[in-house]
Amino acid sequence: MKRIYKIVGRFFTIIMSLIILVITFYPSNGGPTINLPGGIAIHADPPRKKLIQYMNDKYGVNFYEAGDDFTPDKGHPSKYVWEDGSNGIIVYTYAFPNHYFYVRSYLGKYYDDYALHLVEQEAEAKLHDMIKDSIDSDFVVVCPPLTLQPRDLDTDVTADVFLKESNYRIEIYVGGNGDNKDMEAVELKKALTRCLSAGEIKTYGFSIYYCDEKYLEQINSLDQSTIDGISDHIYWSGSCLYGVDVGEENQWMTEDFHWTNF
């Protein structure tokens, strides 16, 4: 009887070990991935040549992997941080200068954010039109896509799809010294919450930056250097959550604006 217990115990141990290996060690990115507690993952090298060829074939332009001269931007903060069991590389193309894009592998399927950047400025213009009457001050809307997106994006993604389905931040650059910042923040929050409730946008938070009005025309969301160039001329910045559904009553949870003076 003891021998049977030992055999059953060893069999159970082997099965459990295999289950743990499957859970923590699987080929999600063209090579093995070890998932550790806290969302940390150790990846094998990504399939660089396949990822670049995928981008070249999908968009009809030549892509190259970013080298040591890579400069992190708001949508691509690192060449090495990948989440969700995926792994990838940061790439660039001369067809779209001064910008980076990601392409990643997850469970044998490839994902990228290039198509989003192609329609980013159109999406920003649409969102600006939605909220332009909420405050009197002139402002510019910037919507940088986030590193990870919920699905593979078609080459013909539209500005509406960008706003309604993709992952992005909303940054609003307002011309002025911020004397009316509290009132304007409330009005912008109301306008964005209405857009969210109507299903016109997806994101749940935004940031405001106050700067001299003359700098607004310098902002080009597709060129990070133009945004970095006004960083020394910001008077106030603040961020806030809005439109978060907290229950069956469909109540809206809001958070007070947190301002930083420069």
How would you summarize what this structure contains?
With 262 residues, the chain is an alpha+beta fold. The protein has helices spanning 2-24, 48-59, 114-131, 159-165, 181-197, 224-228; strands at residues 25-26, 33-36, 40-43, 64-65, 87-92, 101-106, 109-112, 139-142, 170-175, 205-211, 234-241, 244-245, 252-253, 258-261.
Q: Topology, please?
A:
Elements lengths: L1 H23 E2 L6 E4 L3 E4 L4 H12 L4 E2 L21 E6 L8 E6 L2 E4 L1 H18 L7 E4 L16 H7 L4 E6 L5 H17 L7 E7 L12 H5 L5 E8 L2 E2 L6 E2 L4 E4 L1
Parallel strand pairs: 9-10
Antiparallel strand pairs: 1-2, 2-3, 4-5, 5-6, 6-7, 8-9, 10-11, 11-14, 12-13
Helix pairs in contact: 3-4
Describe the structure.
The protein is of the alpha+beta class. It folds into two domains: 2-112, no CATH class; 114-261, GMP Synthetase, Chain A, domain 3, CATH 3.30.300. Helices cover 31% and strands 23% of the residues. The chain contains six helices and 14 strands. Helix 3 crosses helix 4. The longest helix has 23 residues, at 2-24. The relative contact order is 0.10.
Keywords summarizing the entry:
single chain; 262 residues; alpha+beta; GMP Synthetase, Chain A, domain 3; 2 domains; five-stranded mixed beta sheet; four-stranded antiparallel beta sheet; 6 helices; 14 strands; globular
Describe the biggest sheet?
Answer: 5 strands, mixed
Widest sheet, order of strands:
8-9-10-11-14
DSSP helical segment count? 6
Second CATH tier, the architecture of the largest domain: 2-Layer Sandwich
